[in-house]
Structures are given as structure tokens and as C-alpha cells.
Amino acid sequence: MIFPFRYAMLKAELEVKTMGDREQLRSMIEQARHMVFFGGAGVSTESGIPDFRSEDGLYRQSYRYPPEVILSHSFFLRDPEEFFRFYREKMLCLEAKPNAAHRVLAALEKMGRLSCVITQNIDGLHQAAGSRRVLELHGSVHRNYCMECGKFYDVKAIADSHGIPRCSCGGIIKPDVVLYEEPLREGTIRSAIAEIQKADLLLVAGTSLSVYPAAGLIDYLRKGKLVLVNASPTSRDKEADLLISGKIGEVLSELHLI
Ligand code: NAD
């Protein structure tokens, strides 16, 4: 049994610790001259889009094949029908709206306090919140191209079609997302590396840092401080100058930066 006094002490200690984290982050953001944000699927869970590796993430749901198999280049070529069934059901979350994390980051950019967002997400929610400089390492569900003639299609072409989406020329319309086994776009990765090398503050959030080569980007940080905000531990926690366990939308809101 915990006595009321002891309980109050523990609660106060916890509050001080939490306050300390948030204040430290706030002051780091205020002092930064070149702040870069690097995020993953966890940035959009507060918008209702499941990530891959959380308790209720896609890896815990049962499908005929694991998500990284269905979302691979070879599977796409082998069984496009099954690929699009999974893709429409699980990767297209078109009703999702930006959450506090997306909104605060967009506002920080507008205020000239954030240089860019580097994201592993394909949902377009940073742009929906107003972010302009977004480096999408894994592409976007909002861009789709015919594999034969290269004609562009928006997301409705995939969402509103059945089976394998086809272009007017008969070719398959492929989402402009980087599938497993496919290389990242060279220009995007080069810009991301350049931004991180210049950063004096790299805020990393909502990523398990387990999908490479994207996760390896933080190795390019030179002299800048590294802040990690994540709902669960990552393999890089020990390297962080500041580590906050929590939800990124809640944490950024609590800073009252905007
Ligand atoms: P991941 O699923 O491997 O890891 C997500 C991490 O975020 C976990 O460690 C989890 O604890 C944490 N997390 C969950 N909600 C959080 C929150 N509100 N605040 C802070 N942390 C939170 O995701 P990943 O590292 O991005 O790698 C998965 C790959 O899947 C990426 O390549 C990404 O492109 C893709 N993906 C994208 C979306 C999307 O576009 N929204 C959704 C699912 C998967």
C-alpha cells in the first residue's frame, strides 16, 4: 500500500520531471537556428492512422502475409490484386485530419523556426496542415502514375477503383510510394542529409527507427542536439541529448509554442 503522503510526493516528483522535459525542449526549440523535424508513422497515430509496430499497429493484425511482404516490390508485381486490396484498406486513410503535431510543426515553419520536415509517412498530413518544405522519403499516396505511359492520377483513381487500377491506356496505375526492396529517391535523400548536417536541433518523433535507410539519417547529424520523442523505446535512445517518452502531438501542444 502507498500512503497518501508518499503518493503525493511521487506524483509531485513525476510532475517536476515531466515539466522539466517539456521546458528543456521548449528552450532548445527557442534557441535553435536550424531546426529539422524527422518523423515516422507515430506522428499520424493521433490522427487515427495506425503505425506498424505499436500494440494496435498493422504488424499485430493478421493478414495472409506480413505487411512488409505485401508492401514489397516483388509482391506488387506478383499479386497486384492482393496488394491493392491491402493498400486501399490499410494505407489509404483519406478521412484522417492533421493532428496537433502536424499543426504545431506547420506553424513553426511559418514563424521561420523550423527549416523542414523529413517524413517517412505517405499520408500527406504535414502538407494538409500547411507545411511547405516536406521531404517525403517514402513518397505519397496522393501521387500515382501509370506504369506504361506515365500519366498522373490523384488518390481518387486508386480509392474509387476496384481490383487493379488501370490507366486509360490500359497500364497499371502505381502509387508513388517507395515499396520494400525499392530504393529511396536520390534527390530526396540528398536533401534530407544536407538538412540534417546543417541542423543545430534534430527533433525525431514517432518512429521506431528500424526501417533503413531512412532510420540511418540521424547518423548525419554533426554538431546539433538530438531530441527523441516516442511512445516506446527505440534502439537510439542512448544517443539522445533529450529523451521524452510520450505522444508527439500532446508533447508539442504542451509547449504552447503557437
Ligand atoms: P513504426 O510503426 O515502425 O514505429 C512507430 C513508432 O512511433 C513506434 O515506436 C511507436 O511507439 C511510436 N508512436 C506511435 N504513436 C506515437 C505518438 N503519438 N507519438 C510518438 N510516438 C508514437 O513506424 P516507422 O518507424 O515510421 O516505420 C514504418 C514505415 O511504415 C515507415 O516507412 C512509414 O512510411 C510507413 N507507414 C506510414 C504510415 C503513414 O503514412 N501514416 C502509417 C504506417 C506505416
In short:
35% of the residues lie in helices and 16% in strands.
Would you kindly provide a written description of the structure presented here, covering whatever features stand out?
The chain has helices at 4-31, 67-70, 73-78, 80-91, 100-110, 125-129, 156-159, 186-198, 248-254, and strands at residues 35-39, 116-119, 134-136, 139-146, 152-153, 173-177, 201-205, 225-230, 242-245. 35% of the residues lie in helices and 16% in strands. The longest helix is centred in the N-terminal third of the chain and has 28 residues, at 4-31. Helix 5 crosses helix 9. It is globular and about 65 Å long. With 258 residues, the protein is an alpha/beta fold. It has a domain at 32-47 and 98-138 and 184-258: 3-Layer(aba) Sandwich (Rossmann fold), CATH 3.40.50. Helix 6 links the parallel strand 2 and strand 3 (134-136). Bound molecules: nicotinamide-adenine-dinucleotide. Nicotinamide-adenine-dinucleotide binds at residues 40-42, 44-46, 49, 51-54, 57, 120-123, 138, 205-208, 210-211, 229-232, 247-249.
Mean pLDDT reading: 91
| N- and C-termini, Cα separation | 42 Å
Using the coordinates above, name the CATH class of one domain.
Alpha Beta
Gyration radius over CA: 20 Å
Number of strands: 9
Spatial strand order of the main sheet? 3-2-1-7-8-9
What low-confidence regions span 5 or more consecutive residues with pLDDT below 50?
Answer: none
Summed up, the helix count is 9
**What name is given to the CATH topology of one domain?**
Rossmann fold
Question: For the record, what is the CATH homologous superfamily label of one domain?
Answer: TPP-binding domain
Fraction of helical residues? 25-40%
Strand content: 15-25%
Biggest sheet character:
6 strands, parallel
Secondary-structure element order, N to C: HEHHHHEHEEEHEHEEEH
Bound molecules: nicotinamide-adenine-dinucleotide
